Amino acid sequence: MLKKATDVKFVIVGDGELREELEEYAKKLGIADKVIFTGFRRDLQRIYADLDIVALTSFNEGTPVSIIEAMVGDKPVVATNVGGVSSLVKDGVTGFLVPPARADLFAEALIKLLSDALLRKKMGEAGRRSVFPKYDSSNLVKAMDELYRSLTKTKN
Q: Which pTM does this prediction carry?
């Protein structure tokens, strides 16, 4: 991918058991200068504001909050088509969905977005429209309240 898109930085947010292994792998590939490992961060809105694209390469997911946060920030998403991801990312509209374990197709989707600022903007805006008002914080609190009330009624 870096052969086709040389002016790129990858930002990996969060920590996990594979962090050291990933850092070593980036060094081994000679791309350590292109990869930023931020560790755990609380200022995610600030991080999202500095990104052009959000990528999620999971093999297993529920409904990823990170995708909702990205869409709220007008960011297009490239993600593996697993779990509840397709309920958020509409392929070709708000981003691209790629089969798991297809790094080649994932890279193609990233390159397509990196090379087309208008497409990034269009998909980012479509993503924002798709998550509001459904995932607005007041609606989420209301849904949680309704869930708790229904569980309480069932118990009594």
A: 0.82
